[in-house]
């Protein structure tokens, strides 16, 4: 299979292994073409594995994102090998993320850049950026994993690529496992994927951390699974509906790495929206189940609103009408949800429950950050579409915040996290999330009304004063 002109991918096997194409699907988007090949692997006429090859070609540059997913069905031992071949000149420079002392997080990670006279025959198991004069390559992580269901997969082992050089160029290869599922990805382009000497590029790559803290897959970016979810594991990842990395990269540098991942995330988000209009959280939240008897596949207003915000932003950056359609579909769902499930404040403002079960049960608390995100999104939708229904609904969320503004401030000056179903306020607020939402609200009030709101400013100043006091005493 050609990946672009200078690159190819192949599955190499012994003579007793046969690989047959069972299905091929091609989807043409405005900015990306996706080809999925589903193959069956046979040994001695018995199927032993399933193989999925996903190729994403981007219209704005000669770049390819290539995903390999392999699932053994039996414990047959095989010599299957995945090979990526590159017909390129001698590599010039490489870069990767390293984690001193095994501290796998953004604040502790470092960016390691090396001039390369000779790439080692055995690469590390981390993401590798490799630049040559006529080609740029990013080798993703190779994982052996176990599918736990509900979009959750547990990483069992990390593998690495080996490198061989011949007259045709370079071949990166790795063996496929006998047991355990396998996945990896590669990005290759005629143009430079990312400027590995640029500090902004470095910080964005490290911040998203698709190396250890998150994973890139054909259907979007996967995050570490919260401990409160089920299934979960300290080495497990799940597909977060919000796709925060895609939204982060949307306004990042216009290089292949950032733009291609943003586009992949955008189209994945489009595919994952349900028929009702929201993006379900597949795993079960144990605390939601214990407190409100909500099972998995539930509606999380924050994650879905963040996903819809991403769709609106993506439309405004890429002019992809499918993204606007998804944002409108969610906005219409959200308006109906607010009207159906909210409780009213003294001036008929809406206090919106944060979560709803798949069956339509929404008897949960209302957190300030969720309420603000919903309001801000509807104001943004009004600005983009001039749909008065969005503005009218947003204004009633604003009324709810104003009606309850004094009650959100704790005796110590911090803000309460949420209003509980019994009408009391409680739980610990985030350090900056709600504050940033409040500041965005004020910016939107300036756009829509020409002036900020005094009650929102009181909440901002209370939170800022509390944070500053904590910083000084901490």
List the helices and strands and how they pair.
Blueprint: E1 7-12, E2 17-28, E3 32-43, E4 46-58, E5 63-72, E6 81-86, E7 91-98, E8 110-115, E9 128-132, E10 136-139, E11 142-149, E12 152-159, E13 162-166, E14 169-175, E15 181-189, H1 199-208, E16 214-217, E17 220-224, E18 229-230, E19 236-239, H2 244-250, H3 256-272, E20 284-285, H4 286-292, E21 299-300, H5 301-318, H6 321-341, E22 343-344, E23 350-351, E24 355-356, E25 366-367, H7 368-385, H8 388-403, E26 416-419, E27 425-428, H9 433-449, H10 454-473
Antiparallel strand pairs: 1-6, 2-3, 3-4, 4-5, 5-15, 6-14, 7-8, 7-9, 9-10, 10-15, 11-12, 11-15, 12-19, 13-14, 16-17, 17-19, 18-20, 21-24, 22-23, 25-26, 26-27
Helix pairs in contact: 2-3, 2-5, 3-5, 5-6, 5-7, 6-7, 7-8, 7-9, 9-10
CATH topology annotation of the largest domain: Beta-galactosidase, Chain A, domain 5
CATH-scheme architecture of the largest domain: Distorted Sandwich
**Spans where pLDDT lies below 50 across 5 or more residues:** none
Which structural class do the helices and strands define? Answer: alpha+beta
* Total tally of structural domains: 2
Q: Note the overall shape.
A: elongated
Short description:
The protein has 474 residues and is an alpha+beta fold.
What would you say this structure looks like, in words?
This protein has 474 residues and is α+β, with helices and mostly antiparallel strands. It folds into two domains: 7-268, Beta-galactosidase, Chain A, domain 5, CATH 2.70.98; 273-473, Glycosyltransferase (Alpha/alpha barrel), CATH 1.50.10. The protein is built from ten helices and 27 strands. The strands form six sheets. Strands 2, 3, 4, 5, 7, 8, 9, 10, 11, 12, 15, 16, 17 and 19 form a 14-stranded antiparallel beta sheet that branches. A four-stranded antiparallel beta sheet has the order 1-6-14-13, with no helix packed on it.
